[in-house]
Amino acid sequence: MFINQLQQLSETREGFYYAFDVDADQCFCRVFWADAEARRNYSLYGEAVTFDPTYSTNRYNMIFSPFTGVDHHKKSVTFGASLMFRENDLNFNWIFEKFLDAMGGKEPHCFFTDQCPAMKIAVPAVFKTAAHRLCMWHIMQKVPEKVGPTVAKETDFVSRLNSVVWDCDLEPSDFEERWFGLISEFQMEDNGWLSYMFSIRQRWIPAYYRDIPLGCLLRTTQRSESENSFFKRFENPRGTLVEFWLRFQSAMDQQRYRQKSLDRDSDHSLPQTKTLLRLEIHASTVYTHSLFYDFQQQCVDSLHSCSAGDSSRDATTRFLDVEDSMFRKTYTVALNPTTWDASCSCKLFERKGYICKHIIWILSGKGAKKIPDKYLLSRWTKNTKKMPLYDVNGQLMDDFTASDVSKMHISTAWSEFYSTLTLLKAQPAPKVTELIHLLTTFRQQLQPVSETMTKQQELEMLLGCRSSTELHILPPVESKNKGSGKRLTSKKQQCIAKVQKPKRFCNNCKQMAHHDKRNCPHSSSDHASSHQSADNASEVSCFPPIVPF
Fold it and tell me: Where does the pLDDT of residue 528 fall: very low under 50, low under 70, confident under 90, or very high at 90 and above?
């Protein structure tokens, strides 16, 4: 039924893509799907994609893996999703290939994952131009364990390392200089893990993807983890795949309802400005509210922290130094006065898609009345969702699918029904009787001959599709993945969890401890039983055994 539902959606909804596979025993083992709205979202917001598998979403323990990005409201948006039997490089290869096929071969600029060894093999094998980035948060969580408790707790090494690693404003040479200085100061040259992480620094340090368009839009997989948590609010770990699909659709409906609500707020209201800069006023009319507030902060900072420095020029470009008192640094803005082309050494526009306070300060001083069009990325504007939707072959897809038209007709029928009832209030009783007779007759024509339906028929009515006699696919075998069972914890983790567990007052020993009266080690009942057993032992020992003659 699950595959039948996907098959029917592909036939009735333009732009719906799905692909599935079976193993040697004809058991269902993996599937990928993306509807027209998800593919539209990827065409608009697919610069950075994060991918993080999650577990315990269905009774077969198949791994659920959504592809997640950031929309024009800075909220998480789903580009597609998959289920797979096992987390290995072959399955990841297949899923990634189907993802690219659904998206017309368009690769993201950055693809974020954790340090899974299987994905380390699969990502570069499929994505030829996308930069494979590792989750910084997962890496930095390992630092205290890798450097040892003494360095982690008794020095400021971890906090200073965080300040170096997370700084998006550093150039690669600046990062390396500060890294080596920190490693040398704390004598960590022989730490193998730190040496290895430095050797793969291009895959997780922001300094090395400052020049990638929107390369700093994501730095971790926490977007995926947040979406996984969101989906799990709808999923049932012991549910069938059919139930999983229904719950997934409910989750997507809620996600898209939230996006449409934010679209409506941005379309029908203007945020309050804080300055008199014309650039800020213009931004309030074109940007979504979420992005506008980030741009507004740049406008405010431009007035409070920017001042003029040295300047120079060549034949077409002026180079202006801007002193930034907030960061205590000097940034260089290159400006072409004729075309209003501008670039800043902080590279905020390249990293996040909107101009920085240094460029705002220069353009405002030159009398600019609006943000230049080349610096207005459509992905951040209010009108981005109004663009026409095309499939992978370049064909314009109709926004109203067969299902949407059916819903529209049903809504019209309800409207006509209620309008008729309103008019009947002023009509004599025979008119009402006539309407009841017409509705009863029409219902009897639609109602099946058999009044009782089988469970299969009820399920088909719920899903809106019939079981196919052409597909002969066996249910998936319940898989044993690392996240499917109870998580095993080491003795160290158990001790840490016990120490972190809050103490409570025990009414038996009158102390704050990790137990209560029921399991108190000083319980009087335990002592009584032990004394009783001792007394019984002494009584037994007082009487010699009776030996029969």
Answer: very low
Torsion of CA 212, 214, 219, 221, to 10 degrees: -110
Pairwise CA distance, residues 258 & 261, whole Å: 5
* Each residue's pLDDT tens digit, 91-101: 999 999 999 99
Find where tokens 């099946």 sit. 448
Categorize the per-residue pLDDT at 464 as very low, low, confident or very high, splitting at 50, 70 and 90. low
**Of 337, 352, 344, 340, residue with least CA distance to 287:** 352
Pairwise CA distance, residues 370 & 367, whole Å: 9
What is the DSSP annotation of 149-192?
HHHHHHSSHHHHHHHHHS-TT--HHHHHHHHHHHHHHTT-TT-H
Q: How far apart are CA 336 and CA 324, in angstroms?
A: 21
Q: Which two tokens stand for residue 100?
A: 């690219």
Cβ-contact 58, 235 below 8 angstroms = yes
Instruction: Extract the tokens encoding 542.
Output: 């007082």
CA 403 → CA 39, 398, 400, 408, 518, distances in Å? 18, 12, 8, 9, 60
Contact 37, 18 (CB under 8 A): no
Closest CA to 96 of 85, 86, 107: 107
Q: What letter does residue 174 receive in the DSSP assignment? A: H
pLDDT exceeds cutoff 60 at 109: yes
- Predicted confidence (pLDDT) at residue 402 exceeds the cutoff of 50: no
Dist. CA 427–CA 414, nearest whole Å: 20
In degrees and rounded to multiples of 5, residue 118 shows phi and psi of -65, -40
The residue with tokens 């990062």 is 175
Q: What angle do CA 225, 227, 228 make, to 5 degrees?
A: 60
Residues 285 and 269: their CA atoms lie apart, in Å, by 9
Give per-residue pLDDT as tens, 150-168.
998 889 999 999 999 999 8
Across 472-521, the runs of DSSP E, i.e. the strands, are 504-505, 512-513
CA atoms within 13 A of residue 50's CA, in its CB half-sphere: 27
Query: 3-state class of 343 per DSSP?
Result: strand
Amino acid at 113: T
Provide the 3-class DSSP secondary structure of residue 302. Answer: helix
Bridging pattern class, strands 131-134 and 110-113: parallel
